[in-house]
Amino acid sequence: MDTLNNRSSVSEFILLGLSSSREIQILFFAIFFLVYVAIVVGNLLIVISVIFDNHLHSSMYFLLANLSFFDLCLSSVATPKVIADFLRKRKTISMRGCMTQMFFMHFFGGGEMSLLIAMAIDRYVAICKPLHYQTIMNHRVLIVLLLVSWTTGLIHTTSQMVFTIGLPFCGPNVVDSIFCDLPLVIKLACTETYILELLVIADSGLLSLVCFILLLTSYIIMLVTIWQHSSSASSKAVSTLSAHITVVTLFFGPAIFIYAFPFNSYSVDKFLSIFYSVITPLLNPIIYTLRNQEMKAAIKRLSSQHILSWFLKFCL
Ligand SMILES: *[C@@H]1O[C@H](CO)[C@@H](O)[C@H](O)[C@H]1NC(C)=O
């Protein structure tokens, strides 16, 4: 890092935030603070329910708990600083802080992307190969899928950050967003970044687009399979699948917008980046718990076991 700072005259970035009006910023502070508390409570509730409740010891719920864990991590990378920044006049972030934010955003983001694929595989086996579900999706396979998710996140973020960390920054240092986002920061480098921009488009944008199309296609195949063999369990399966499709769309939609067509409309990016930091991590627990009877029942059981009251006391 020190050799890097010799070449760069910029040692920190200035974040513009969402608004310059003091009143609006206080309003954003309150909203983001409440939403972040809801994210932490909601996702921890899912993780705790799945770990403590024997009824939820199936691969679908283990994957769901891991998704909640990813959501917790993803929203904690930038959101606490974003919230504190709403109360600051001058929102600065050090070069190292900025690089760290981008590294972990893409680490957990890439991991979550692969986890959504793992969840689709799990549902695919459950619906299209129901007789072999227990043998195919055993605990070992589950662990492998999780390891693959973490590894994918690591490879994904490293492949971009390795080239970003060495960029020289000597000149405007204003990032028009609430946290450091890869396309915005690359744009500020005082060197030719064409190749790196292409790499980000391929690595983040194209990859999200391809995954999204594959996921949607597989969910459509599953829905068609269910409709062909309509049985008593089908309405529950359709509701699970529609929850998955909603989450997948909310996660990949903004990613595709930001990364597959970057470097043109930055003002939209700023609002899309809110999706990452707060909206998707908040919606996942809502979508999964409100639509899922078993999850709701598990949370009720939890509260009767006093774990919930202990947990709420601990959190609030
Ligand atoms: C993730 O899934 C594994 C695999 O079965 C499970 O043992 C673990 O408890 C889950 N992690 C979380 C945070 O829920």
TrEMBL record:
Q: Which residues form the G-protein coupled receptors family 1 profile domain?
A: 42-288
In the UniProt record, which is one GO cellular component term?
plasma membrane
What membrane topology is given?
Multi-pass membrane protein
Q: Keyword Signal on this protein?
A: no
Q: Is the keyword Magnesium in the record?
A: no
Broad class of the protein's primary localization? membrane
According to the UniProt entry, its GO molecular function terms are: G protein-coupled receptor activity; olfactory receptor activity
This protein's UniProt keywords: Cell membrane, Disulfide bond, G-protein coupled receptor, Membrane, Olfaction, Receptor, Sensory transduction, Transducer, Transmembrane, Transmembrane helix
Q: Which InterPro entries match?
A: GPCR_Rhodpsn, GPCR_Rhodpsn_7TM, Olfact_rcpt, Olfactory_Receptors
Extract the PROSITE patterns matched here: G_PROTEIN_RECEP_F1_1, G_PROTEIN_RECEP_F1_2
Transmembrane parts of this sequence: 26-48, 60-83, 103-121, 141-163, 206-226, 238-261, 273-291
Protein name, please?
Answer: Olfactory receptor
Q: What is the phylogenetic placement of the source species in the record?
A: Eukaryota, Metazoa, Chordata, Craniata, Vertebrata
